[in-house]
Amino acid sequence: xxxxxxxxDGLTREQHRKANRSLTQRLLVFTAGSFAxxxxxxxxxxxxxxxxxxxxxxxxxxxAIVREAVDVNRTITVEFIANPATVGSxxxxxxxxxxxxxxxxxxEAKFFARNLTRMDSVAQAVPSVSPGGSALYFHxxxxxxxxxxxxxxxxxxxxxxxxxxxxQLPANVDxxxxxxxxYDLTQTAAR
Amino acid sequence: MAHASAEHAHDDHPDQPATGIKRWLFTTNHKDIGxxxxxxxxxxxxxxxxxxxxxxxxxxxxxxxxxxxxxxxxMTTNHALVMIFGAVMPAFVGLANxxxxxxxxxxxxxxxxxxxxxFWILPFAFTLMILTFFVPGGAAAxxxxxxxxxxIQGGDSFPMVIFAIHMMGISSIMGAINVIVTIVNMRAxxxxxxxxxxxxxxxxxxxxxxxxxxxxxxGSVTMLLTDHFFKTSFFNAAGGGDPVMFQHIFWFFGHPExxxxxxxxxxxxxxxxxTFSRKPLxxxxxxxxxxxxxxxxxxxxxxxxxxxVGMPLAAQLFFMLSTMLIAVPTGVKVFNWTAxxxxxxxxxxxxxxxxxxxxxxxxxxxxxxxxxxxxPADFQYQDTYFVVAHFHYVLVPGAVFAIMAAVYYWLPKWTxxxxxxxxxxxxxxxxxxxxxxxxxxxxxxxLAGMPRRIPDYAVQFADxxxxxxxxxxxxxxxxxxxxxxxxxxxxxxxxxxxxxxxxNPRGLEWTLPSPAPYHSFQSVPEVK
Lengths: 191, 528
Ligand code: HEM
Ligand SMILES: [Cu+2]
Hints:
By secondary structure, chain A is of the alpha+beta class. Helix content of chain A is about 25%, strand content about 35%. The longest helix of chain A is centred in the first third of the chain and has 40 residues, at about 15-50. Chain A is elongated and about 80 Å long. Chain A starts with 12 loop residues before the first helix and ends with a helix. Chain B starts with 20 loop residues before the first helix and ends in a 37-residue tail after the last helix.
């Protein structure tokens, strides 16, 4: 009787073992796939943010910037916000709080940062544009956030960001905010 | 079993269990392993419960009186981790171990050795996690959701908790694979999929959810680990990562996880209500399809846990509507359960009482869930006690009551004895009254704006907090009755018949004598 019984599903014990083993293997592959999928969410997240124009996204697929097409009939306020993310290491603020600009025209704004520590340091600014979705229309042609910034002990300086706001910016937006978080990378930079 | 005789010789299937500790260490018997899971779960339930008592004692009145804030936060964090991964999930795996083979007429689980291994990982995982209370920096205190950057800044506990979570994940993945292989390959002839008891169905679907999302949790905590130790920047904004991404990955696991904790409960209730209504389950097929659609939908609603982090309007609308859609198959289930009881000849044995309480109280949790799904409302409710009330209604009188109903339903089948009905009734009524005293006022607190995860609060919240704490102490103490009933029943009592209940329950498990023999269904049972 029992497990030698060839009548359970008409299968012998050996056939049963085989069936179990092969299903187990398939389920393990499925599990490994789920694990990989968890990591695949990382690039996927980047892509989705880009498509949706969230946060740090740079417009890749947007229409080419036509500089002649300055829209003088439209005025937009761009506000600047600076957040020193690592408390105590940096002084960090925008030189002007806001600019009134026309879409299609190139502007420059300056942010000031000073290393408050007694050591040389490296910092990275991470930009974010709100309201959500408008990062697609905010083109930075040059930015101190494009690369890590090195500071000698106590050094302070102005750093420029140049930008054009796309004339395609949805009509209901009349105010944009460009915010930077300023991170001390000194500990991380060594890697 | 008439022809059980000479061929019984081969000995990887001893007739009788080994004796002493070896029986439990090396057993591959589904009943032994089921028992170990259930006992482990009960112990974890009391450990997690003790932590909850600390929380409610601190919140008994405003001000800081008993514990310091860091310890308080480690209480909430570890309470959640212990209850989710230590109490509720292992209890369901234990029930699956005991009941799935008995319900489908299989002699054992398909992968008995893996079964042993998946259980024995758990005590180590939880020992490791509890040990974090004694390391520099204290136990994890950043919330069970482990959001970075806070979670990465933990002390020595950080890698220990991550490793413990990895082990819990491996254990439940192995448990899930075992359930799937058993159900798919080991059903007795004639036990077609659509004849299968609903407990098996809901577990089959749960098991697929487990192998789909536990690895995602493992991936996300691995990323936390490499961010901390190997300077990767998955979630580190300075290095180009994004902490919000963690929330997305976590909740991609997290929402299906809440269904992992409730689908088997749906199965249990779908077994018990028909028995004590003396009617077949109303709408069996629609129950199966509803379970499957809930499982499917659970993958596309995760961002309702994070409406306030900022996402495009279209995404908010999508997640709001998909979340509300889950209420439809859930409503189908509640309807079917009610229709099952409709005009039935009901009797109110302890398992039935718990199942009915489940039906009412889980539904309250479902309602508050729909309120939370509503984006503009959620902006106000998010991170308040309203959320705490919501998930405790679905988890305590939801998942936990269903587990207790299951224990009260099948315990005589496991031990061969009837238990003390008077005490069990007391346990039921005290639990049901106190669980509402405990959690219902938390709705009011949340709507009035009391934030969650805080050790102190503004004085206007004092009264309802005191009521809630009294409910908590009452509920906690009542659970001692449960332990007493179970232990007494394991030791002895009136002999149970094969049927156990006068109500004539259906299903293969009731064709076996009580207690179910150590080896059951060695010969193929007849499925009607
Ligand atoms: C109709 C069904 C349900 C709906 C519409 C629903 C909706 C929601 C929403 C929108 C939230 C997020 C609230 C916030 O953080 O602001 C939430 C939180 C939660 N839900 Fe549900 N839910 C449902 C059923 C369940 C079930 C069945 C369970 C578990 C058995 C569950 C467990 C939880 C948990 C644990 C949380 C909080 C997690 C945390 O933040 O720590 N929910 N629910
Ligand atoms: Cu959810």
